[in-house]
Amino acid sequence: MTIRNLNRALSTATLSLLLAACASNDLSENTGHQPRQPSATLAASLLPVSAEQAILINSAGDTTQKLWLSTGPDNGIQLQDSHFTLLDKKDIQAEFIDQRRDQQGTLFVSIDKENNRPVSYRINNQRITELAFGQALTYPVEGICLYQPARSPLQLFVLDEQQMAHHLLIKSDGKVLTQQEIRRFPVPPNSEYCVVDDVSGQLFVSEENVGVWAYNARAESEVSRQAVDLIQPWGQLHSNSGPLAISQGQLFIAELAHNVLHHYPLPQAGSTQATGAGRAVILDQSLAADSLRTAINSDGTTRLIVLDDNSGQLFSSNIHLPQQARNQENIPEIAAHTETTPVRKTGDAADDPAIWVNTGKPENSRILGTNKKFGLYVYDLNGQELQELQAGRVNNVDVRQGFTFKNQPADIAAASQRDRKSIALFHIDPLSGHVSATTEITTTLDNVYGLCMYKNLKEQFFVFINDEDGRFDQYEITDSANGWNGKKVREFHVNSQPEGCAADDIKQQLFLGEEDVAIWTIGAEADAGERLTQVAAASDILVADIEGMDIYRNEKEAYLVVSSQGNDSYVLYQAEAPYEYIGRFRVGINAEKGIDGASETDGLTVTSANLGTEYPQGMLVVQDGRNFLPEENQNFKYVNWQDIQALIQPVLNP
Questions:
Q1: What are the residues whose beta carbons fall under 8 Å from the beta carbon of 215, sequence distance 6 or more?
Q2: Nearest Cα residue to 198 out of 141, 262, 155, 242
Q3: CA 195/CA 211 separation, integer angstroms
Q4: Where does the record locate the signal sequence feature (predicted)?
Q5: Residue 568 pLDDT more than 50?
C-alpha cells in the first residue's frame, strides 16, 4: 500500500468517527467563537479526470445523462461521459470555466491562456461546438465569473493580477466573441476566485488570508463591499478563504489548501444583506481545496467537485441542503434608446433635464440639461449638443410653452441659480428652439436647490423653487415691455431637505419630494394654502433619496414618474388620487448601440408629445450619475415611452 493510499484509509476511518459524532451532535468546530454545528461531514471519491476545473453538466435532450466538461492548460477543453470516456477535446490552453443558459441552450466561457483572451463554446450532440474567441486582454487574468441579470445581456467579470475587476459586456454568435468593458473597479490583493448570484445581483470575491466580500454586480451600481465572512478572530473561517460556488440558493466557500468548506443561505432579490449565517462541512482530511464546482443530482442533492491541491486530482462528494424558494430580481430593465454628449465638467455635474417640444417639427424638439458646475446645455433628439450657455451653477430646469417675451410669442425655461440664490430665466424661440439667457429673479432663500414650473388654466406662469432647509417659494412670472418679472405669491415648507417637484397643469396639482421621507402633493394655485397630502412614503419600493419627478399625461392616462435614487430605479404612480403604485423599472444597457444604463439619477423629465418616428408616444429623459461604455463624464439618457408602455400595460390590463 502506498503512503497516499495508507493516508486515505486512515482518513476514511477518521471520517466514520466524525460522522458518528455528527449523528450524536457531539462535534463542533474549535473556532474561538460560539461553536457552530457542521451541517455534514463528507468523504470524497477520486474522479479519473485530470484538470484544473471540471463541471458536471446534463447531456442535451437527456437530463438524466451527465457529462464531464473540464479545462486545463495541459489537457485543453475535454468532454467526457459519466464513465469518463473521452467524447471530444479541443487543444486550447484553457483556464477557468463558467456557464449560463440562454435561448440557444448553455454557453460556456473560459480563458485561452496562450493568447490571453476569452473563449466561448457550447455542447451539442456530445461535441464541443461553436468555439468563438474574443479579443486579447491587456492584463493577466486571475479568475472569471459570469453574470446574467434578468432581461439584460450576458456579462463577464475578469479579475486581474493588478487587483482590478473588469466588468465586460459579452456576446457570442458561435464564430466571434465580442466584448466591451463596462467599468472597472479595485478588488483586494490576492483576489483569485469569484462567483455571481444572478437572483440577488451580488458578486462574491474571495480575498486570500482575509475573507469573502460581496459587491453589487449591477453595472450601474455604486462600488462598495460588504463582508460575507472573515478569518478568525474577525469571522468564522478557520485560516483562509478560497474557491467559491453557488448551488440551490447557497454560497459555498472552500478554505484554500484546507479541508473545511462553509455554506451560507443567499438572500432574496433586493435584500441589502449579503448572506445568512454560515454552516461548516468537513471534507476528507487529506484534501486541500484549490477549486470548487457544484452540480445538482437527480435526487435533488448537491454534488461538490473539489480539486485537491496536494494530488492535482478531482474529488466528488454529495451534500443535502435545506431548500429555500427564491424570487428572481423583480425590477425589469428597459434599454436606453439614446444618450447625450457628456458634460464638460468631471464629477457630479449633470443634474436635471427638461423637454422643449417643437410643435411644427416634433423631430426637431430640444432637451435642456443643467451642468450644476457650469451652466445649461441644449441637445437635439439624437443627443448631440447644440448650445452651451455659461449660466453658472444652475441646478434644476423646467420649461413651459405658449408665453410671451416683451409682448412677442416666446417659450420660457427657468432654472435654480445657486451662485446668486435666484431664478434664472431663459428665452426659447418658439420656432427654432434657440435658447438665450434673459432675466434673473432674486429670491429670499438661503440655498436654492430644486425648481419646477406651472402654467395654470388661465395661462398664468409660475415657478416653484425650494431651499435645502425645506422651504418652498412660489413666484408668478409676468411679461412687460421690459421683459419678464417675478413676484412671490406663496410660501410653504416640508420638514427636511426637498429637491424634485413637478406640476400637473391640467389638474392644478404640485408634486414634490422630501428626499428621505415621502412624495407629497399640494394645490398648485397661489391660494391653495400650505396643507400637504402624502402620495407615497420612502420604502423598499420608493428607495431614498427621492429625487427627480415629472408628469406623463395624455388623453387617457396620467402617471407620476419618480427617480428612486437609492436603488437606481424609476417608480410609477397614478398621477390622480388615490395615487396607486403601478410599477418600477431600471434603465439598462443597450448592447446593440453600445449605450450603458442610468444610475444615481438626480433629475428627470417626460413628455407624452409625439416627437416623430423615434418617439411617437413621447420620451423619458434621465440624468446618468455613472456614465460607462466607455467611462466618461456624466450625461443624460433618453428612453422611448413605447418601451415603458409595453412594460406597464400588463399591469394596467391584467
A1: 165, 185, 202, 203, 204, 205, 221, 223, 224, 225
A2: 155
A3: 14
A4: 1-23
A5: yes
